[in-house]
Amino acid sequence: MEQPKDATEATRRALDALVRTLPEDTGEDFELARKGFIATIPDAKVLNAAGHAVWDMGTFAFEGEGCDCPETVNPSLWRQAKLNSVHGLFEVTKGIYQVRNFDLSNITFIEGETGYIVIDPLISAEPAAAALALMREHRGDKPVTAVIYTHSHVDHYGGIKGVLSDDDIAKGLQIIAPEGFLEEAVSENVLAGNAMGRRATYMYGALLPRNAKGHVDAGLGKTVSMGQVSLVPPTVSISETGTRMTVDGVEIVFQVTPGTEAPAEMNFYFPQFKALCMAENCSCQLHNLYTPRGAQVRDAKAWSWYIDEAIDLFAKKTDVLFASHHWPRWGAEAAVSFLKKQRDLYKYVHDQTLRMANHGDTPLEIAEKLALPPTLAAEWYTRGYYGTLNHNAKAVYQRYLGWFDGNPANLHKHPPEEVGRRYVELAGGPDALLEKARAAFAKGDYRWVAELVNHLVFADPANADARNLQADALEQLGYQAESGPWRAFYLTAAMELRNPRPPSDTPRQGAAGQIRSLPAEQLLDSLSVRLNGEKAGASEIALNLRFTDTGERFLVTVENAVFHHYPDREAASAPTVSLTRAVLADLVIGERTLPDEAVAIDGDGEPFATFLSLLDRFDFWFEIVMP
Q1: Alpha helix ranges (H) inside 322-373
Q2: Are 234 and 149 in contact (CB under 8 A)?
Q3: With 70 as the cut, is the pLDDT of residue 512 above it?
Q4: Are residues 419 and 324 in the same domain?
Q5: Which pTM does this prediction carry?
Q6: Which uninterrupted H or E stretch holds 255?
Q7: How many structural domains is the chain composed of?
Q8: For residues 489 and 207, what is the distance between their CA atoms, to the nearest angstrom?
Q9: What are the tens digits of pLDDT across the range 108-157?
Q10: HEC-encoded secondary structure of 461-501
């Protein structure tokens, strides 16, 4: 297996130059990150039922106390990595506690009259259960009385079965979320779940070794846990700012913030604690307006506006501000100062991008020019550890003007393999292209090497010299990156170029755990993106589906190579298929096949078998840096 390489002299020079531009480090962030510490478990190590670690901070021991920044890591990202290594149970204020760095996100516990209100139960069940156990060990063995999802990203709901039992869920214990939560969670994590999940392996360094030449931090947190993920629908939806609820004796005032960091998101305030939760609308960094794993572009203007509204509604009466990632801030003055600069960070990117766009600058040109003003650049919590000015500027442009920059040369470009073949020919063949690329590498022009050699890799992925040179260039870009996701993308690509994955006879299915727990309407909606239009062709299919676990019935049809479903309808001439939602999900992803005793068909069984044969099964391990 090809191994990572050392930092080049050009990379060392680039990182030395960066150090001279960084804000002064007063140590305040480290004090804030450690404030209120109560306890932790060794290395925050969490095992699943099979005894495998799904979370282990011990793998980041190389970042420990006294460890100097290696030459292969951006010094600014190294500082953020050390901050994100502080793990355990913390008192935010009397009655509010967080377990931090047991997963990518924070889990927060509010002490109610009879038990714990849980905010954001992490990505997977095992770390969430470990966090709850730590809370109970130090604050009392009390039940969970409610769960709040701040928004529709998986790191804020996926671990719910670690804090609620199936019985809790079945009896309807309150699960509170912003209006539109379920639709957005399904859209992001199921409809596009396979593609997004695969890209997330790049973004969070899931495949990289934990060391100075591999994954060090994701900026937003360390990385993602690898346990059991579930999607349990909320029982209460919050649709209006100013909505008040009393949950287990605790009053909560909600602020809905749609279209900000997530399409469905909310902040909220606890009057009795004078505590403000900013969800993921504020964190100790510049966030993503477009996330490299793929998602809808976020509205920077709305994001800024809702932070401003939170200042007016809550900040001046806030004793402590906490969020779904990173560490809190204490005192109204500190809260207001932090919120104002976070507010202006997103508004600045929005306004300046559109200013330059209206001068005729393209996304690439704007991204190269955009820089923060001195007052914003002076703060550590505005730096691009997760989002970057570069790709956020492109996101603003895309939101308003789309992917097309107006130049007709970019209107109908060749796909990568075709354009690659033409560039290789233009360069004088593979050897000539590689000679030019090696000369650029020697000069430290790694961005140009990556662009140039990418054409040869896509024209001829079997060319090992091309793959290895491309890997070398991407690796140096990764070492230089301040953004955790950018580093992880570059280094994961380098690893896969050097060590191509052999084809698999049994493709892994993405988002399988969440598909099984979907409500019927959303489950059927997810099938529409699996229907293979070419295979369906002129086929016409009608089926009556009855879900025996919920009693729901649907008419489903295929016509014009499009799948439709209609609740509470049936077609007299169509066969009736009776099964549970979980069985249908298993049939779709290939874990069951027909005939199956769990499937009852009244009428001709052929249309149902044909329908299943028209549904694609997505291979999680599709190629990204090769054709």
Answers
A1: 332-358, 363-369
A2: yes
A3: no
A4: no
A5: 0.95
A6: strand 250-256
A7: 3
A8: 11
A9: 999 999 999 999 999 999 999 999 999 999 999 999 999 999 999 999 99
A10: CCCHHHHHHHHHHHHHHHHHCCCHHHHHHHHHHHHHHHCCC
Domain for residue 376, yes or no? no
Alpha-carbon span 246 to 249, nearest angstrom: 6
Q: In what order do the strands lie in the sheet with 244-247?
A: 244-247, 250-256, 266-270, 275-277, 320-322, 329-330
Boundaries of domain holding 449: 413-498
**Measured on CA atoms in the order 531, 533, 534, 538, is the torsion positive or negative?**
positive
Longest dimension (CA), the chain: 76
C-alpha–C-alpha distance, residues 428 and 455, integer Å:
13
In sequence order, the 6+-apart residues with CB closer than 8 A to the CB of 627 are 416, 417, 458, 461
> Is 483:385 a contact under the CB 8 Å cutoff?
yes
Same domain as 550, residue 451: no
Note whether 46 and 56 are within 8 A (CB): yes
State whether 272 and 235 are in the same domain.
Answer: yes
Say which CATH number the domain at 264 has.
3.60.15.30
Q: How far apart are CA 591 and CA 583, in angstroms?
A: 9
In which element (H, E) is residue 83 found? helix 75-83
Phi and psi at residue 380, to the nearest 5°: -65, -35
Q: Tell me the two tokens of residue 238.
A: 């919050």
125 within domain boundaries: yes
Sorting pLDDT into bands at 50, 70 and 90, what band is 65?
A: confident
How would residue 190 be classed by pLDDT, with cut points 50, 70 and 90? confident
Confirm if 152 and 264 have CB atoms less than 8 A apart.
Answer: yes
> DSSP string spanning 174-225?
-EEEETTHHHHHHIIIIITHHHHHHHHHHHTTTTS-SSTTS----SSSS---
Q: Based on the domain organization, do 483 and 519 belong to the same domain?
A: no
Tens-digit pLDDT profile for residues 5-32? 999 999 999 999 999 999 999 999 999 9
CATH number at residue 434: 1.25.40.880
Q: Render the burial of 201-234: b for 16+ CB within 10 Å, e for the rest.
A: bbbbbbebebbbbbbbbbbbbbbbbbbbbbbbbb
DSSP structure string for 539-603: --EEEEEEETTT--EEEEEEETTEEEEEET---TTS-EEEE-HHHHHHHHHTSS-SS-TT-EEES
